[in-house]
Structure formats: structure tokens, C-alpha cells
Design goal:
CATH superfamily of the largest domain: NAD(P)-binding Rossmann-like Domain
Distance between the termini: 46 Å
CATH architecture of the largest domain: 3-Layer(aba) Sandwich
Oligomer: single chain
Shape: globular
GO molecular function, one term: 3-hydroxybutyrate dehydrogenase activity
Helix content: 40-55%
Order of helices and strands: EHEHEHEHEHEHHHE
Pfam families: adh_short (PF00106)
Radius of gyration: 18 Å
Number of domains: 2
Largest sheet: 7 strands, parallel
EC number: 1.1.1.30
CATH class of the largest domain: Alpha Beta
Keywords: Oxidoreductase
Strand content: 5-15%
Organism: Massilia genomosp. 1
Amino acid sequence: MKSGMLSGKTALVTGSTSGIGLGMARALAREGANIVFNGFGDAQQIDQLHTDLARECGVQTAYHNADMSKPSEIDAMMRFATDKFGGVDVLVNNAGIQHVANIEDFPAEKWDAIIAINLTSAFHTTRLALPSMKHKNWGRIINLASVHGLVGSAQKSAYVAAKHGLVGFTKVTALESAGTGVTCNAICPGWVLTPLVQQQVDARAAKDGIGNEEAKKALLGEKQPSGEFVTPEELGALAVFLCSAAGNQVRGVAWNMDGGWAAQ
């Protein structure tokens, strides 16, 4: 077993087969946490991913393919984590999807899917993780919200509603566990160059007839004053801080890491 701040603990990270979730899983594994991966993708590549991380960090890893829009599958994933590792000590609610359209053109089924995966799934994982965390008197719940949990943007009604809801849910969870060793906080990134954001960059490049690098600069220039993408590694380091003793009294916070986006 690897020694480290989280040695002997288990972290479950939803949507962790790529992007921010993978960055979170890697950061927590480096601190000694066993990792339960979740997400979609090629089965062989996912198997390789968690096997490599286990070897690299000297921890145990497992994978569950729960569809985060389905409560029964979330329940099965949480039971899997308990059977495999004895419970979840660090819960990172990261799974998310996006759709962009004006409200009057927004497909109702897309709204339902975004609310289910970006918001409701965090309720289900949290309600199932809390009893064990409270019993142990230690736990960390980290909700990956977004700068869109703090401010709005046109054409992102479902995403903004879900992320604002996730920030509110974070505060209530923190208050309900305030007298215990369990903390709950939200991390609110600005633009991170994840596969989801790369799709938006590609769409912009095609629409405006410009190169990919130019499209990235245009995207950042509109919202993110630093002119630089936030990285999954930076977000992972913040998650590690929230899991440390220094984070014991950080409770119910929506911590934006957004290159100055929300400061405007």
C-alpha cells in the first residue's frame, strides 16, 4: 500500500475516464487513495488506464460503468465500491454533459439528460456515501460545478441551471454535515481544454473558418482574462488541498479556478 495523505482511503470519481475527472483521479491516487473510475469509452483503453494508474501510484483501482442518468446504476456502483474497498471516503461528482441552444430551441430530452447527469446524479451518490462517511467521522465530497455555477452564459440554460443547482446542493450538504468530519465543497472551473471543450473549439473553427489555435484564443478572449486554459492538474491539486487537514474548515465553498472569469 502506498504511503501518502490518503493512504488506505478510497476515492470514487464519476466521469473519470478523461478530462477533469481523470486529472482528479490521478492527483488523488498520487496521495495514496484507491480509485474507483467511472465513465464511458473503449473498454480496453479504460482497463489499461486504471491498470497503469494502479502500477504508477502503488494503489488499487477498479472501474464501474454506471450510467449517471440512472439511479439504479448509481446504486450498483456505490455498492460495488463498498464491496471492493469497504466504502467511499472521497467522492468527486464530476460527470457532466453539455448542449448549446437557445431556450426556445432547446430539446426537452437534452434538458432532462443534462439535469440528470450534471445535478441529480450528485444527489444520488451523496445520499449513498454520507452514512458511511458520517459513521467514520471523515469524508470529502467535491462537486465539480463550473464558473457557470456562479454566472450565466447564453444558450446554456440547462448546464447553467444544473451547475447553479450543484452549488446550492453543495451548501446544503456542507451544513448538514457541519458537526462532523465530513466536508463538502464545489470547484468551479472556467475553460478547461477537455474533450467537451475541444468540441466547442472545433465547432467554432469550422463556423468561422479559422484554425484551431485561433479558435482557442477567441474562446478564451471572450470570458477568461488570463488567456490560458485551466488544467486538470491544477484542479487535481485543489482537490488534494480540500482533502488535506488544511481543508478541515473549508465547508460549503464554491471555489472558482477560472482565470479571472467571475471577477469581471
